[in-house]
Specification:
It is a single chain. With about 300 residues, this protein is an alpha/beta fold. It has ten helices and twelve strands.
Length: about 300
């Protein structure tokens, strides 16, 4: 395949009709220029120069190819300039990943302030299950993921943002709504159905809590849901209750959040690749920490 180095060497030799002067102009060695010309002639399968010990001159093919070489280099320069302009005009993007829509609700106030402060920044939000979320960060498709995951990996760092108590969530007219706090034994004794989602939609620490609450329940007392949105809709409609981390700023309006103090609060935080805490991401995390603290008060 032709490359710009070959074309630049060809045009320099064609201009000077001297390999040494062409090398000086290009700031490379004379053997390097000769190599580029030889490979170009081999690819084109024509001789571009008549070379003797005393002089260098263009062949007829060389004269013809000179027109094409100039046009190709001109088009290459225009393409590079256009792409550079395109990159500069693109809004700065920041990829953010999470497992469910409740995290998006918690992010919204901080994103609103960030938009006002940095209008040229465009967040790209990704909502995916657990394993895929980790892959997004590893492959650098996102700059940060928001999760209850306790520990960072070998190439990642973690910033704690808020403590989230475990809560039983139900409609105001649900039989559990009158409790001030609950235990798993009380949930089982009170009966009723629990809305449950596939494990990948829960972070590992919360999945441990949810599995404990689900233990011993028969299928008739579980409503299996494809998404957290479906589970919350059934809770809002009074068909079931569920368990959720009581994340500051993410509460669904009109529902009862009843603490379950037998479980330790879960740590909500951001994971990002070590050494890649950019100023916009650092600012977003600070805004999110402030907004979550305000919501918790």
């Amino acid at each position: 395949m032709l490359n710009t180095t070959q074309l630049e060497c060809f045009l320099a030799v064609a201009n000077h009709l001297n390999f040494s002067r062409a090398a000086q102009e290009l700031h490379i060695t004379q053997p390097a220029v000769s190599h580029q010309i030889n490979t170009l002639e081999a690819e084109l399968e024509v001789k571009l120069f008549h070379r003797t010990s005393k002089n260098v001159r263009l062949t007829q093919a060389g004269h013809q190819f000179g027109q094409y070489a100039r046009e190709i280099l001109k088009l290459t320069g225009i393409s590079r300039a256009r792409m550079r302009q395109w990159r500069e005009e693109l809004p700065q993007r920041m990829g953010l990943g999470c497992r469910n829509f409740l995290v998006l609700r918690a992010l919204q106030p901080a994103l609103t302030v960030l938009r006002q402060e940095t209008p040229q920044l465009l967040p790209v939000l990704r909502q995916v299950p657990s394993a895929s979320l980790d892959n997004l960060l590893e492959e650098e498709d996102v700059q940060a993921i928001f999760t209850m995951q306790r520990e960072a990996g070998p190439k990642t760092s973690r910033r704690h943002l808020a403590d989230c108590p475990v809560a039983c969530v139900c409609a105001p007219d649900h039989p559990l709504a009158g409790y001030e706090q609950l235990t798993v034994d009380q949930l089982n004794a009170a009966g009723g159905r629990i809305a449950s989602c596939p494990p990948p939609l829960y972070s590992p620490p919360f999945l441990e809590v949810f599995s404990h609450a689900m233990a011993g329940r028969g299928p008739d007392r579980i409503l299996f849901c494809d998404s957290l949105e479906i589970a919350c809709t059934l809770v809002e409609s009074g068909y079931a209750f569920t368990l959720l981390p009581d994340m500051p700023g993410a509460r669904l309006p009109g529902l009862r959040y009843i603490p379950m103090p037998q479980f330790q609060p879960l740590s909500f935080g951001a994971l990002y690749r070590t050494g890649s805490l950019t100023p916009p991401l650092k600012r977003l995390l600070a805004l999110l920490e402030d907004s979550m603290q305000t919501s918790a008060e």
